[in-house]
Amino acid sequence: MTGGHPKGLQVLFYTEMWERFSYYGMRAILVLYMTRALGFDVARASSVYGNFTGMAYLMPLAGGYIADRWWGNRRSILVGAMVMALGQFLMFLGASNYANAAVAVPMLWVGLGVIVCGTGLFKANISSMVGSLYAAEDRRKDSAFTIFYMGINIGAFLAPLVCGGLGDTGRPSDFRWGFLAAAVGMTAATIIFQLFKDRYVVDAEGRPLGLPRAQRIAVHGNAAHDTPLTRQDWERVAVIFILSFFVIFFWMAFEQAGASLTVFADRQTERGLFGWTVPASWFQSVNAVAIVIFAPVFAWLWQKLGARKLDPSTPVKMSLGFVFLGLGYLVIAFGVKGVGADVKVSMMWLVGLYLLHTFGELCLSPIGLSAVSRLSPPKFASLMMGVWYLASAAANKMAGVLSGFYPEAGKPTPVLLGYRITGLHEFFVIFVAMSAVAGVILFLLARPISRWSHGRA
Fold first, then answer.
1. What is the pLDDT of residues 204-243, one digit of tens each?
2. Looking at residue 218, what is its pLDDT?
3. Checking phi first, is residue 40 left (phi over 0); if not, alpha (psi -120 to 50) or beta?
């Protein structure tokens, strides 16, 4: 799996795999838990979902700063992992008392808040540490982040199956078992990192990576970590901010997976299969398993194009991601056109959307992570990764807001900027238009973005 790469990549691969199992397992049942067990309506559940996921991707900005300035990646990842495990156990305790709103609802807030704090310390720092295994100009970075991304999605694939299978049973009391499984997964991530970080997460000379600032200087010397930024450095930082701005619109539409698309799977999708009803939460595994299948294909494609000097630049690849994103929503908008709110459609429309979104994600997310790693000044590596996740924070918050416009029978017709959302077709068309506009603008900016990156994007 990681032939030709440092063994530290395997440690980070499995640590991130179990962390993502924990996060996506909890996320797969979160909206269902709030609507079925706690009695929240879709708008309120979507708001909580957006606030939580938004904060989970906002806090890595602070976590990156803490690591760069004081703690280093290692301590930040370890503490963050332990805090997230605690948060998942708190979710289990809250769901165990779901019938008592005076206990369950406050425990929901506390559990989500603790998970947010742990994610802030963990998320940007483990991504930054992947990049630190390689020299700045090492072209294996794209491949390394693709492998790392496969770990993310193996966890994301297993999560809805396990946590959804245990919690999404139709019995509100069973949601606790889904949250407990997420807690166990996070505990596994903590143990793996603690056991193997000192032996394998090292540089080519066997020196530990991700140390606190003072220890890092003592072991590695000042090197590039304390040199002033040049004009080229600042232009590369500007590129990170530009790319981060555009990915807001990608994730805003993509992250409907945990909100409106989960509601769609639950209420408007025919889920019968050979006499068995597929749990609504399981559809979130389609994207993840498709990532695992197709990530090697995309990695091979980029490598072949690169060998022929035809490899597209980072912004061109990312604009292609918007094309696939828009096509996915175009497919499902066609599938629900003229269909009433009380009619369920074939699950193949939803599966088709997730497959196209997978292609879009592979053109954007691992490519963006690799670009941030290459573009970031060493002294701000984790902080810049936090900026990248800041875009996801804004996107996840807005994903929750837009999910609140999901049309429900018996509720007033939602209106977004004068646009009346009279049905599901009109709702999904919003994301088609958003993807098209953002993708075209990014493509038009590809040349100046590539120039400002000075050969690193």
1. 778 888 888 767 666 656 565 567 788 999 999 999 999 9
2. 63
3. beta
Alpha helices in 175-283 (DSSP H): 175-200, 213-220, 231-254, 260-267
**Rounded Cα–Cα distance for residues 2 and 299 (Å):** 13
What domains can be seen in the chain, in order of their start residue? 8-199+230-453 (1.20.1250.20)
114: left (phi over 0), alpha (psi -120 to 50) or beta: alpha
Alpha carbon of 194 to those of 12, 201, 333: distances in Å? 11, 11, 47
Q: Which residues of the chain have pLDDT under 50?
A: none
DSSP states of 272-312: EETTEEPPGGGGHHHHHHHHHHHHHHHHHHHHHHHHTT-PP
What one-letter code names the amino acid at 64? G
pLDDT, position 208? 87
Q: Looking at residue 302, what is its pLDDT?
A: 80
Q: What angle do CA 452, 455, 457 make, to 5 degrees?
A: 75
Integer CA distances (angstroms), 241 to 217, 236, 318, in order: 28, 9, 14
Instruction: Tell me the per-residue pLDDT of 294-303, one tens digit each, with 9 for 90 and over.
Output: 988 887 888 7
Q: What is the pTM of this model?
A: 0.79
What secondary structure letter does DSSP report for 166? Answer: H
User: Which is nearest to 91 in space by CA: 103, 76, 82, 81?
Assistant: 103
